[in-house]
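User: quick one, fold this
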Amino acid sequence: MRSLLDKFLAVWSLRRVRRLLSNALALHRRGEVRSDGLPLLDVSIKLTVSWRARDVHPWDRDLPEERAAPRLLDQTLHDAEDAVERIFAAFPEADTLELSVLESDPASNRVLMSGLVVRSDLGCCASSSVAMRLRMLGINYRLANQRLETIGTRALPSSPTRSSNSDDMSGWPITRVRRPADLAAKSGARWSDSERGPH
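Assistant:
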């Protein structure tokens, strides 16, 4: 039932986006003498999202490092997988998600995970390993001794907007992070209310 509802919302949202774009391209409705507008051919929306990995669970903070490390790794990998699924569910009109996961230290600009996930790839990998499922989604990371190693850095915003739960870090430029060669980012469509035009 949930899957059917998600599909319905995705179709409805995409139709709404196409309608808004078609209105924006309908130049002949904006005082032009010509009777034709710009025909819409295709739409692709990409989200760019960044977040910080969580620290080790409070219950595990007193564990020896060799026991806490694999638990933190497992937590971070599952967090990434859950976040991807929830983001796509929250934005059914989005086709792709470009993500990066930074270290938990608020002052750090080091990236632990990054990738470009295509919606159609969700659920395609039946592996019982969360590490393999993330790899198959196109998320890159490097492991060493049950720990995530830094795979790149990115510029931190000069004045991050803080909320009660997390920092809003979307839209930062990312540097020196390996990405799959066979995946290309699709351009995202962002429209303000003033740009949408008449319904």
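User: anything notable?
Assistant: The longest strand covers residues 110-118.
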